[in-house]
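Checked the freezer inventory, then went back to the computational side. Two predictions to log before the end of the day. The first one is the construct we discussed on Monday; recording sequence and tokens without edits.
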Amino acid sequence: MKIVALNRRDFLKSSALVTGGLILGFENSISANVGKSPISLSPFLQITREGKIRLGVPVVEMGQGIYTALAMSVLEELNSDVNLIEEIQTIHHPSFKHPLVAKFTNDVLQMQITGGSASLKGWSKHFQRIGATCREMLLNAAKNYWKIDSDPIVKDGLVYHPEKNHVEHFGFFARNAQKLSVPKEPIIKLPHQFSLIGTSARRWDTEKKILGKAIFGADIKLDKLIYGTVINSPIIGSKINIVDDSKAKEIPGFIGIIPLERQVIVVAESTWTAMQAAKSLFISSQAGYPDYSDIDIINKLNLDSVNEGVLAGQIKGEPEQIFRDSNTIIERSHYVGMQAQASMEPLIATANVTKESCEFWGPVQIQDNPVFVAMQIAELPAEKIKVHTTFLGGGFGRKTEADFIIPPILASKIFGKPVQITWSREEDMQGGYYLPPCLEKIKVALDDKNLPLSLYAKVVSPSPSLHYAKAMGKFFPHWISEDGYDWVALEGMPQQPSLLTNEVNSENKYSIPNIKINYVPSEIPIQCGAWRGIGANANLFALESMIDEIAHYGGNDPINLRKILLKHSPRAINVLKEIEELSNWSEKREGRYLGFACSDYLHTLQAQVAEIFLDSRNNIKVKKIYCVVDCGITHNPRIVHQQIEGGIIFGMTAALMSEINVKNGKIVQSNFDNYKMLRLKNTPKISIRTIDSNESPGGIGEAGTPLVGPAIANAMFAATGKRVRRLPIRKEDLA
């Protein structure tokens, strides 16, 4: 992307970033015409007159540390630290799907979205370039001012004269720098020149959160603001036919309801009043699936598993011929149940709709969603819709959905005031979008050395992306092919195209000569969507359980077998050696049971070892999780450790404790009393080691989650001799 200098008229006057100084954006960040209406775009970097830095970023901060990581990309080029950052905010470019702003979407996912652990990979180089551009412009301004030919020194927010004892802060030169031409090809540091990237710099957002200065969805306060909540139809797939609000009308502060097909929006003078009024409603529904239960999900997946489905990725070799000729074939089935995202922050959003505009505030992972919804409901063009993204108190995929965006926009249009809608935990838990249940059937042919010669897998699950595609139509990126192939459901499987290049990268994958993967979409009447790791959770559970089984069948050590299958990948071999050392894998003693799993997922190589023991009642006790990570260039080791650790805890919860169940047409779980989460007292020691390979950055936020299940399951086999073929692990599976 070409870097351009902007003036005050070129970007949104309402942006908090805009106060003058040196202001930089990317190519085409200027006023342009869309039809008859002008749009304007926000800057990405500003040096204030006081010498502070303000950043506008296209992604959101939801605890993963992306604000800090992208700031470090800029600051690396300015030889400065995080203390120089005054403000970071997520910016939104209002021209929905217009070619002018296509480049401001995520390079990987083709939307303005924070997900798929793609933020750093998609944007770090761009922010390095803008930092390098800023540095060179400040240098040139200083050279002009001091009338010198040699380059001054830029460091810690200051510009030093190369010979004399003269020094000025960045802001001193910012205005003059603004008037200079922008260098076309600024010199960007190479990895061996980094001084900030690779260090555990403090997180920029931590202090704001501790001091209560971080703005979350519930912190939005507007003049004449009214509040609300939602009640969803009680039976899966049912339609509301009767709503009686007579008792609600007796509650002081109650304003009114908006009955929809499958939801009732309740509006009042406060959130508490709205929730009390919601509880007082009498709601009747009809049709739907009143007898639907867990067994119906499993039966549907099994029924659909006889279908061939669609080819996922590319066929490698001649797997079918190998199966016909093979003497040793192992076939297994694995199942992963539904999970809720269960983020601590409730679903909450605020909207103010007028005849001329729509403003939206909320913790959204996809900025395109409020624009698309407002275009439909408010009947406004995209350039009249402004999205203000708050901090997210966790997302895990749930806040990629549009269901919590619709109520405030609709209610604001109807009541003519700004409206803030807050979902209760119960409505979110029982009316959410869940990790798709998945049945995997894997067949492996072994050669005469008991090494895998051919692999065939059939992945049967609801598509996590189909509902997006149905809602957004032509505006949705090509995540789903015309034949139903959904790459999100196939994450973690071999022979899948790269998200960045659309090419199969087998460099760090298992060297199995013959591979074929099929995907069978199996739709159920329950909403399924994004969840931390999405398809990789089921795919890596099935694959790594199978590889472990093959190792034991052939009398091979599980890690040694991976070394054979990954011998062509030096990075992978290094990860395997490090995990052996970190976990003391070779130590054999009574009562110590180890399980292993590894992956190349999100362009991050990772290995995990679960150490477990069984108590006197044969209950699983996870003593320790070991993890080695090669995520390429490690921007901030502390953040990598935090994210991997959080992902492991998230994965342990899903492997051992939590599950979304269905009974008599309703979701059983409703809050943390019956949707169990791993607590601090039950959390094992987690030991993490990072390897900096100087490759381009890989994803981290989701990477730690999918391997925990298979690592624990494989440890369970070591302890009991019984194979775990479903997650979450149940005690009866080990009986």
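The second is the one RB wanted added to the comparison set:
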Amino acid sequence: MALNLEALGKPLGPITKDYDWKDAVLYALGVGAGFDEIEYTYEKQLKVLPSFSIAAVFNFFPLFCAEANVNLAGILHGEQELIFHQPIPAEGTLKTSGRLTHFYDKGKDKGALVVGESDTWHSNGKRLFTSRLTLFSRLDGGFGGENTPPPTLVMPERTPDIEIEDAPTRDQPLLYRLSGDIFPLHVDQDFAEMAGFERPIMHGLCTHGFACRALIKSLVPGRPELVRRMSCRFTKPLYPGDPIRTQIWRENDGRALWRVVNARSGATVIDRGVFAYGEIPEHAIRFDGRVAIVTGAGGGLGRAYALELARRGAKVVVNDLGGARDGAGAGSAAPAEAVVAEITAAGGEAVANFDSVATAEGGAAIVEAALAAFGTVDIVINNAGILRDKSFAKMTPEHWQAVVDVHLSGAFHVTRPAFAVMKAKGYGRVVMTTSAAGLYGNFGQTNYSAAKLGLVGLMHTLKLEGARYGIKVNTIAPLAASRLTADVMPADLYAQMKPEFVVPMTLFLCAEECPVSGNIYNAGMGFFNRAAVVTGPGTVVRGAGDYPSVEEVAAAMDRIATLEGGKTYAQLNDQLADVLSAFDAPADDAVAGPGDGGRGGMSVAQVFEAMPAAFRPEAAAGVSVVFQYRISGEDGGDWHCAVDDGQCQVLSGQHERPTCTLLMAAPDFLAMMAGRLPPMQAFNTGKLRIEGDIMKSQLIEKLFKR
């Protein structure tokens, strides 16, 4: 038996579960609640324990294990993180989807860690919680994978601020398992002995539920809706009937560390616990559980991004080389470490990184720092930059290359390994940093301008390649004071251009709620707008000879140069389609009007009647295909066109075995046949759908005259 490494990143689910107040009460009883916590055990004004989220999705665990192909005889719950987005209602239907995110190899005789992530939504339309689960699979190590990242959380050595005693009964697993965790390790003597235990052990998640109760009672009494995050590591088994003690250390307002010890033996059974709590305004954008990389984060914009991401719940890799404005010097760890200190002092999580973005090795090391510290990457803000301003006449190759290496190549070096992680998990947000100098030009900055506009091109292609994987890529053009501009602008203007004015737009582009990809936004001083490459409608210049002359182009410049009626394009093919369609317009540039009935007033049926006459037999030698057309709406119907070695037959109705099927609404089909809707544009915009062998559909234009 071996782990299914091919399952990494594969979507799991969705699965659904109906529940009501009795399920929530049964869980509360299973983790020790009683009359002294009647808010969890009586249906009148019932409140649901946040840790019930585990019980609510127990049916997701078998799917997780089956897909990973773990050896069930050797699995233990290793780590658990819960991030709460909304209080859990007392009843409803839950829908959970997720994926396996990591396989870590501890060694042949030491086991493996299998990590997965899931999101659960309620039937009220709200996302309730995110779960990050780590299974310790004791019998599955030695497959040659990377080792586990070292822990970053250090527990306090001082005496706990609070200690809560509890006494799970010897029969506790029998009650708890009724909430769904029916794994035999917790009830079956023979199975427990086979797994290496003297008798059945407590469910780790049952102990976790006891701890959740203790934390709420101590920090937010009676208000489970304030719980924002709860994470921990399961370290030792606990036998039913052993008393427990939950130890709590207050860090600051809104965050505490915790562990659970066996009150009889003193052994730690749950360790490295983090508990976050507090009010979250309605519709607040949060990054709880997300991992962000911010390059050039030792000051200015990068620092502002990192601080606000952390304040909103993200774990942050603060990257900064610590060099001079022009990139010179040996660098310093101080700027990045200072920002990390600010974040941790405020109760956030962050690590410093000092690698250069200007090399592939540096970019890989930055991403590896995120994986080592936090296990994943969700967000990349490419913010690092240097300046080496010179007029073009004085620009040296060294000045040019140094700026391009940091700005353009740097974004590539960091984004590339991060993109692989995002692709595997099916989620990611990437922000490029351009500049008004790149969009509009600025004297003395040819190197900087070229690099900054290059980032826009990088964005446009990444938005296409990342779309199917849930990765959104956008670009910010900040107008803000930084170390790069400290001495090149008037002091009064510099004071107005605080980085904090840019932060809201940039963080929105990093948020799960961001609906756009491939856009550019200017931001500064509280002013925001979108920038775009706008293409005018243009015109076809029909020359007297084979090609238009220089003079004929000069005469048409007014029509060529106008941006009136201009548009933006989502991709190259859309623009190319418009260029090709321009040649189908009459010579006087008139365009067929909406009342022309499509192809010269033809109906859909008449178009198919005319198809045999448009057939090119010479192009069909050796070709055997069947094109099925399904035209919807008024005047629609089904037709198929069978081509066989130079012969063509068009019939109404459906063919039994079409090579491909083309689906269109009647008006769109007539517009396409009239030349007013290019086929590629129709396909890219969803007006034309193709089922079956999509490549064979491209033969249509070869086999038929327009």
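For RB: The radius of gyration is 31 Å. Residues 587-600 have pLDDT under 50 and may be disordered. Let me know if you want it refolded.
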